[in-house]
Each structure stands twice: as structure tokens, then as C-alpha cells.
Amino acid sequence: MRSPPPRKTTMPPTGISLTETPAAETIDVEYLGHPRAIASCLLENDGQLALVDPGPSISLPTLRQKLQQRGITIADLRAIFLTHIHLDHAGATGTLVRENPRLCVYVHELGARHMKDPSKLLASAGRLYNPGMDQKFGEFLPVPAENITALKGGEEIALGSRRFEVLYTPGHASHHVTYFESAAGHAFAGDTAGIRIEGISFVVPVAPPPDIDIPAWRRSMDLILSRHPARLFLTHFGWSENPAEHFEELRDRLETWAAQVREMMALPVGPTPDVGAHAPVGAGLADDARRMGEFSSWAASEIHSRMEREHAEHYVTAAGLDLSWLGLTRYWRTRPALPSDSTPSPSTSPAAASPLRSTKFSA
Ligand SMILES: [Zn+2]
Q1: CATH topology (fold) of 24-253
Q2: Phi, psi of 249 (to 5 degrees)
Q3: Which residues, 6+ apart, have CB-to-CB distance to 51 below 8 Å?
Q4: What is the DSSP pairing of strand 231-234 with strand 186-188?
Q5: Ligand 1: distance of its center to the CA of 294 in Å?
Q6: pLDDT tens, 180-197?
Q7: Taking CA 70 as the corner, what is the angle to CA 66 and CA 76, rounded to the nearest 5 degrees?
Q8: What pTM does this model have?
Q9: Residue 18 Cα, ligand 1 centroid: separation in angstroms?
Q10: Over the stretch 233-283, which tens digit does the pLDDT of each residue have?
Q11: Are 300 and 321 spatial neighbours (Cβ–Cβ below 8 Å)?
């Protein structure tokens, strides 16, 4: 580790802030020019520096600039803590390692192989985002195996004298982890905590394909809460100060969205029927694409009903509502039917034949 660079912030070199809470500084990478969309977090102790989720490489110029404003270069970083490997969280990692080959990258073992060889990840993400994936995220370079520390959950990571417990928190992604620093009460929860723009009391899930798992997500929220965090750090976006309330709202909305998707999936598929004036609500939905639009409009209307327009538009953009439709339909279609299920399994519905089923991976 090189000696720490001169700092221009109020964060003293010991990493202990004026409030005695270990330093964790939000870096807004201003994704595609949008503030408060993607946050990285800068951790420091004893001259050692780490980033939680550096963001996509398209945002690297801003990340680099904001580190420089703090007297930090990429070469000064020691570690990258990845919550998961989706492109908007992890995309810049390989580029950062190429620039600083001493970087240690922490990632769950199920994501580690895709960081070493992102070809399948990128092919799958391309099915969701192309054309235009490169313009949305930039390059995603492989990370050499020697830079990667694969995690299972249960480990403790040291940064100077600071300690971070690794919690395995699948649900949003099968390879998602949360880093919990008990000394500060900070849980770096990534997308397990959904989307909540700092300062606005509204939480929505983000549920893209391919491995949304609602029971696992519930358990992950319980696991984080079992540590009694004082604050959550979200990539989208920033700090949330009341974790119990936050997860209660997220849990409720996730259940509501999942039920809504399931209900819409059970509607007839095919040419828009001539159903007359007594048609059930939604009976005219012809296919998955139309249903996806209906779902996104339904979710967006609730968001708009809860806040002023400018903030609502921010949420709708950040949430990628179409992706949550795809992720939740995949969840229902691939989930084994339970004996207690009172409605037909979506896996047997005509909608299961939709080409949208082939979606494999998201960012
Ligand atoms: Zn994600």
C-alpha cells in the first residue's frame, strides 16, 4: 500500500469522522449525466481505500474526477467490494484492475466466474439492453483470477482496522452479498434494498431477470435486519436511515408487484379478443409486451401518486419497470408450484411460450 494521498475532505486519515462513525462517503458517479442515479461508496481506514460498487465504466470519468477532488487516484485504491455483478454496479471493475493491478476484488463465488470471463454475462445482458448496451454501460473487461476473492457469506473483510461482515443476500440476484460494518451500523445492501432516492421516503424493488427469488429476498432482508443496522447504503441511491421501516415498505411493495404480475400473467394470451362491455379488467391484453407496458404503467402510476413529478420521473427511470416485469414473470414461470397455490401455475399458462422467456441475464 502506498502512503495515503493528501486529502481535501473533512475525513481524517484515521477514517474516523467527526461524529466517530467510520467514514463512508457517497460518490455520485452521475450516470449518463443524471445525478442521484448510481452511487459508489468510498471507504477509508489507516490510509487504505476501497470502493463499494464502482458503477459502470461509462461513468468512470466522473468517478475518477470525484476521487481526484479528494486527492485520490485509482492507483491509491486497495479494494473493490462488489455487492453483485450487474453492469450498473460492477461494470468498471475490470477497467480499474487493468489500471491498478494490485486491486483486490471481493465478489460472491457465483459471480466470480463471470467477472473472470464476462462473455456469458454480456451476451445475456445484450438480450435485454441491445441495441445500445455499450452506450448505456461502456466496456466490461474481465478481472484476472488473482485479483478476485470469492465469497460465500460469513467472511470478515478487513480494511485497515475496520471490519466488514459478508452477508449472503440473494433474492435480487443469486450472487448478491451485503457488507455489514457493525462498528458503524452500516449495511452496504446494494439492490437487496431496492431503490430509494436519498431524502425521499419511498422504496421500490428492482427485480430484473434472471434469478429473482422472492422467498430468498425475504430471508435476505431478515438477515440484514438481524444485524440491527443503523443505516443502509443503496447504489440507487445513497443512505436510508430507518432500515426496519425501509425493508417493511420494500417487502410490501415486492409482494404487491409480484401478485400483480402473476394476476396479469393469468390473463388470456392471443389476438385482442372482442370481449364487449363486460370484459374483465385487462382482458384485452394480447401478449407479454402489452402486459409489460400495462404493468409498468400501473407501477409508474403509484409512484406518480406518491411524489412530485420530477422525483417520480427519476424513480421510474431508475427502477426500470419493464425489467421488473421480465424478472417477476420469469420468477413465476420457473418457480415450482406450491400445493397451497389457489390459482393455476403460470408455468402452465400460454404466456410461458412467450419469447421473452428466453431472457437470461440482466444488468
Ligand atoms: Zn442489480
Answers
A1: Metallo-beta-lactamase; Chain A (3.60.15)
A2: -65, -40
A3: 27, 40, 41, 42, 43, 77, 79, 80, 81
A4: parallel
A5: 23
A6: 999 999 999 999 999 999
A7: 95
A8: 0.85
A9: 33
A10: 999 999 999 999 999 999 999 999 999 999 999 876 544 444 333 444 444
A11: yes
**Alpha carbon of 86 to ligand 1 centroid (Å):** 5
Determine the distance separating the centroid of ligand 1 and the alpha carbon of 186, expressed in angstroms. Answer: 19
Nearest CA-CA partner of 323 in 259, 257, 267, 250: 257
CA of 319 to the centre of ligand 1 (A): 10
CA–centroid distance, 39 to ligand 1, in Å, is 13
What is the C-alpha separation between 251 and 288, in angstroms, rounded? 25
DSSP annotation string for 171-232: SS-TT-EEEEETTTTEEE-GGGG-B--TT----B----SS---HHHHHHHHHHHHHT--SEE
Give the three-class secondary structure for 239. strand
The structural domains of the chain, with segments of one domain joined by +, span: 24-253, 256-358
The continuous run of DSSP H or E covering 122 comes out as helix 119-129
Q: Which of 339, 341, 336, 334 is nearest to 360 (CA)?
A: 334
Could you tell me the distance, in angstroms and rounded to a whole number, from the CA of residue 210 to the centre of ligand 1?
A: 11
H and E: helices and strands count for the chain = 11, 12
